[in-house]
Design goal:
The chain is an alpha/beta fold. The protein folds into five domains: 237 residues, 3-Layer(aba) Sandwich (Rossmann fold), CATH 3.40.50.300; 175 residues, no CATH class; 66 residues, Alpha-Beta Plaits, CATH 3.30.70; 95 residues, no CATH class; 106 residues, no CATH class. The protein is 40% helix and 24% strand. The strands form five sheets. It has a seven-stranded mixed β-sheet with strand order 21-20-24-25-23-26-22. The chain has a six-stranded mixed β-sheet with strand order 6-7-8-3-9-10, sandwiched between helices. A six-stranded mixed barrel has the order 13-14-19-16-18-17. Helix 8 packs across helix 18 and helix 16 crosses helix 20. Bound molecules: adenosine-5'-diphosphate and magnesium ion. The site of magnesium ion has 2 residues, from helix 1.
Length: 734
């Protein structure tokens, strides 16, 4: 049985409108051991026939048998396998990888056939000795003479060690001497193989030929037996696929192999990285800026640097907590009496109502009008010089005595006197008060945040009770363990007197519960309040006075909530994460701003994302076009390795690796650069602005975007490059 058999096989070329014939109704049987020479004038179909035989090109009509197997159902991958197992090609134009050395060219075949590098080296050296190129093993293929190049091609075929060798005008580009020695070499290596040679110059091969085939106009016009040959059986090449390790090695080699190509690609990818970085950063920056505007309904102090903390285990803060928090990076300051940050106090009088926040007097060094306070009930009022009240009530305000009222509850913190005014920029007012008043305001706020249940005899009242309303007040005049109650409460006791009865207070807030049992010692009325407690109040209804220390027992069980302020708001996510890791629950004002128009904001964000997408998309196409131009010279390489036996997938992978190496390098170098700028080792405002608030997540995001882009580029490119058969890819490019 012949190894190759053609029955009425025809090959047509379809170009746009015309169909031309490569060869027509060829019948041919080739045996193992033969040395076949095909001759004929140019254009007679020799190359076409050779390419069909070697599975590089398809045929349109007739039947071809390989080792007895019909091939009409062969797919591209069947042909791939056939080429790997059976065919070694030698071309007129050598088809070497010019940027590789002689050694690397031969090594390539063995790598593609799945050998390990340790097995490869001695084998390659051995083969180079056979073809007489040992001296040139480290010479670049491009530096060799024609005859030497063809020897490399033969060495490659030897390395592949296939049962069939096809050579298309192997001596066409060589001088007479070289041609002679190449033919001799071919004969030497053709033991137990089928060799098919196409040549113009029949005399050169006559002495080796066993069979001569002449072609004319796509037909065989002569098929002549010249000499006898030793019949033999085909020995298929047992091959494996390129190993993962070698694939990576080859990809890397290809990435750096051609210096100008490498530099061009690197430059493009570096540029791409830069653009993606800056686009991404401008997206994040606008997002970030937008996140800083808005309101928060729960907190009065809405500085975006503020983070409210409580402990995850719901215990009060201790000294060691403050120490731990101080040591966390990016914390500018800690504010222990957190509730004071959100207290609103006010003064009012006839047509005047001034509200503002409250700050310690110690943070103020001088006043602009009036005097600094001298005793604990004197305060300074601050505000803009041209605010309404300052403009019109300037004189009246100073030395005014009034109640300082807490949180619009119409509950007085204390009687105060304004001694001075302080002018500053901005809206609103600030009351600068003594530590004593600050402490009263703090306890009052704690009380406001709590529910206090009151039980007396059989009755229990809550603060929302419709029967009575009551407020617990501290007083130094009331003895510990006792309470002075308002008159109306007596109605709920037997005989309308609660005197010497037990009064129970149960306090409950989000952080703790506390309770106290007190003995009712007095009933206060409008008439005796001044005498009993030394305070002058118009209205005693609802007031229950208890000793200051008892008051603290109920409402000051330690600090359960504090605020910290961040140095750099851009690093807020990292800082919050560290705080959470240390066991604190965080509430960042920045992250909890409510925007008045959420829908509009969402829409704007989406638009921004779309713009980013479009920009990245067009960038992708621009880079694709440029990279395609740069890679044009790589087409020969990829069709060459396919002719040598690389599968489509291997070729795609190699291209991917080659491009991924470049993008990684560009990304790494650019990222390193930004990190140097960030750390302050290099000063560059432009890059600093771009990446100052980037976190690991952002770098990862950009990395993913770039890798995806790079993979899309190489896949698109390889899809185009490998969609046609190996030969047409080659033909188009040569
Ligand atoms: P030879 O190798 O004997 O010089 P070829 O096999 O290259 O001849 O060409 C045989 C015929 O096929 C010629 O008429 C040539 O014009 C035609 N041909 C070869 N390659 C193509 C192609 N890619 N497209 C169209 N026609 C082709
Ligand atoms: Mg030809």
């Amino acid at each position: 049985m012949s190894i190759i058999k053609l029955k009425n096989v025809s090959k047509f070329y379809r170009n746009k409108n015309t169909i031309s014939s490569g060869f027509n109704k060829i019948n041919l049987e080739l045996d193992m051991g033969e040395f076949v020479t095909i001759t004929g004038e140019s254009g007679s179909g020799k190359s076409t026939l050779l390419n069909v035989i070697s599975g590089l090109d398809s045929y349109e009509e007739g039947e071809m048998y390989i080792n007895g197997e019909e091939t009409s159902h062969y797919t591209e991958s069947d042909y791939e396998e056939y080429r790997r197992k059976y065919i070694g090609n030698i071309f007129q134009h050598f088809n070497l990888v010019n940027s590789y050395t002689v050694f690397e060219n031969v090594e390539l075949v063995l790598l593609l056939n799945g050998y390990n590098r340790s097995e490869i080296r001695p084998k390659v050296l051995d083969i180079l000795k056979t073809v007489g190129l040992t001296k040139y093993k480290n010479t670049k293929a491009s530096k060799l003479s024609g005859g030497q190049k063809q020897r490399v091609a033969i060495a490659r075929a030897l390395a592949k060690d296939t049962p069939i060798i096809v050579a298309d005008e192997p001596t066409g580009n060589l001088d007479v001497q070289s041609a002679k020695s190449i033919m001799k070499l071919l004969k030497e290596i053709s033991q137990n193989k089928l060799v098919v040679i196409v040549t113009h110059n029949y005399e050169q091969v006559e002495e080796y030929t066993t069979r001569k085939i002449s072609m004319h106009d796509g037909k065989i016009i002569e098929d002549k037996h010249i000499s006898s040959y030793q019949k033999c059986l085909p020995v298929e090449v047992a091959y494996k696929d390129l190993t993962k390790k070698n694939k990576l090695m080859l990809g890397f080699r290809n990435a750096f192999n051609i210096k100008t190509k490498f530099l061009l690609l690197f430059f493009i990818y570096f540029f791409l990285t830069f653009i993606v970085f800056s686009e991404y950063s401008s997206l994040r920056k606008t997002e970030f800026d937008a996140s800083l505007t808005g309101y928060n309904n729960y907190f009065t102090d809405r500085r975006i640097e503020r983070v409210v903390l409580k402990k995850s285990d719901a215990t009060p803060f201790r000294e060691e907590d403050y120490k731990k928090i101080e040591n966390i990076e990016n914390i500018e300051s800690t504010f222990k009496n957190d509730t004071l940050l959100d207290v609103i106090v006010s003064i009012e009088n006839n047509d005047m109502y001034i509200a503002g926040d409250i700050k310690p007097l110690s943070s103020l060094d001088k006043v602009d009008s009036g005097n600094m306070p001298k005793n604990k009930n004197e305060i300074v009022l601050a505000g803009s010089e041209d605010s309404y009240f300052f403009l019109f009530y300037d004189k009246e305000l100073i030395n005014k005595e009034t109640d300082l009222i807490l949180d619009n509850r119409s509950e007085s913190i204390d009687r105060i006197k304004i001694t001075g005014l302080k002018y500053r920029e901005g809206d609103g007012h600030t009351f600068y008060v003594s530590d004593d008043i600050l402490e009263k305001a703090r306890l009052g706020t704690n009380k406001n945040y709590s529910n206090t249940e009151l039980s007396i005899e059989k009755d229990t009242f809550t603060e929302e009770d419709s029967r009575i309303q009551y407020r617990i007040e501290p007083s130094s005049k009331v003895e510990k363990g006792t309470a002075y109650i308002f008159n109306e409460l007596n109605m709920y006791c037997n005989d309308f007197s609660c005197q010497n009865k037990k009064l129970k207070l149960d306090v409950d807030n989000i952080y703790y519960k506390s309770n106290l049992e007190l003995l009712v010692k007095n009933t206060i009325t409008k008439d005796n309040v001044k005498e009993l407690l030394g305070v002058k109040i118009e209205d005693t209804i609802g007031k229950i006075y208890i000793n200051e220390e008892d008051y603290k027992t109920l409402y000051d069980k330690g600090n359960y909530q504090i605020s910290v302020f961040l140095k750099d708001i851009k690093k807020s996510d990292e800082t919050l994460a560290s705080l959470q890791k240390e066991g604190y629950e965080t509430y960042s004002l920045k992250n909890n701003l409510v925007n008045p128009s959420q829908d509009v904001q969402g829409l704007i964000n989406m638009m921004r994302l779309i713009v980013f997408g479009i920009a990245t998309g067009s960038l992708f196409f621009i880079s694709y076009v440029i990279i395609k131009i740069i890679l044009k010279s790589r087409n020969i390489y990829f069709s060459t390795i396919r002719i040598l036996g690389a599968t489509k997938k291997t070729a795609c992978d190699l291209l991917n690796i080659e491009l991924l190496v470049d993008i990684h390098l560009a990304y790494l170098i650019f990222t390193t650069l930004t990190l140097f700028v960030k750390s302050g080792a290099i000063h560059n405002k432009f890059i600093m602005d771009m990446v100052s608030f980037f976190t690991f997540k952002d770098y990862l995001m950009i990395y993913i975007i770039l890798i995806v882009m790079s993979l899309l580029i190489s896949n698109r490119y390889s899809h185009k490059l490998f969609k046609s058969s190996a030969m047409s890819t080659y033909r188009e490019e040569v």
